[in-house]
Structures are given as structure tokens and as C-alpha cells.
Amino acid sequence: MSRFLLLAVLISTTTASRKIVADTFQSLDSSSTSWSVSNGTLNFAASIPGDLITDLSRGGVLGDPLYELNFKRNEWDASTWNYSTTFTLDASFSSSSAVWVVFDGIKMVSDISLNGIALGYTQDQFLRYTFDITAALKKGGSNTLVVSFPTGKDQRNSEQRWMSCSGG
Question: Which residues neighbour 96 within 8 Å (Cβ) at sequence distance 6 or greater?
């Protein structure tokens, strides 16, 4: 029952012949941007790409998930977990007409926001999600991207989440 956030990138796009073509790219993974995970009480570093169970294990909240039944401990599932990062847009985006954030593989249900503005939600780990962030983006300043994973009791989780073919 892991919640998984794989990859987030920003792209600048132009439209040619009804196709969206990326002409600028900025990665938002842990190698280029600092991420944290928090439930309102606990806050610690997160790895992107990565998953919540591994981050909880690194943060000392959950024991080794491969030991006995540690991964089935549900105390952690009673919280909404928020992955967040603050970034500044690369200068190469200054003339961009549109900027999108792209997520490859978010498991399962999550809500996405940028600078406090809701962008949308995800509900299927096998889809790529793209959100136009042009209106919410601060091109000359800091931007905060948040991916919130609701509690296991969230109605959307009961409909979508349990035991997908990746094991959880």
C-alpha cells in the first residue's frame, strides 16, 4: 500500500500542427530540487523519484518495510502526506508562452497545487498527468509545488487504490 510519486518535470511548449512540442525542460527530481514530506506533525526529506513507505522508513516513522509485517502497520495511513518543493524557474523559460508540469507515475490518488492554486488530481498510477501551470507560476520568484496524498479513508482511495498490480 505505498503511495508513489515518480517524477515531476516542467516543460515549456509551443503548438505546431496541433501537436504540443517541448522546447525547454527543467527536472524537479531530488537531484536538482529539494523535496520534503510532511503530515502536519512530522517533516523530513523525501526522494523523488521515490515512494512514501521508503521515505517513512528513512525518516524513522516505519521500520524496514521488508521486515516481517512492518509494511502493514497502518498508523502512517491515517495522515494526509504532502510532498513539496520550492523552485525557481530557469531563465530559459522567460519567453515561454505556456509552461506545464508533467508527472510520470503518481500512485494512487493525489491532489496537486502550485503556489496554493489547485491544479487538479491524479487517480491512476499508469497514466502521465500534465497540468498547465502558466497562470499559477511566478516566473520571477519562488514557486511551491505540493502533491498531497489523502488518508487511506478518503473515498477516492477506497474506489481506486487497493492492491494494484505493483503490489500496493
Answer: 12, 13, 24, 134
Residue 160 in grid coordinates: 481506486
pLDDT digits (tens, 9 = 90+) for 125-151: 788 888 888 899 888 889 999 999 887
CA–CA–CA angle 57, 49, 41 (5° rounding) = 45
Q: Which domain holds residue 32?
A: 4-160
CB 25 within 8 A of CB 14: no
Q: What does the DSSP 8-state code read for residue 163?
A: T
Q: Residues 13, 109, 124, CA angle at the centre, nearest 5°?
A: 65
CATH number at residue 47: 2.60.120.260
Residues with Cβ within 8 Å of residue 139, at least 6 apart in sequence:
89, 93, 94
pTM reported for the whole predicted model = 0.80
Round the average pLDDT of the chain to a whole number and report it. 76
- Per the listing, cell 530540487 goes with 33
For residue 131, how far is the Cα from the chain centroid? 12
Q: Are 77 and 33 in contact (CB under 8 A)?
A: no
Residue 165 counted as domain residue = no
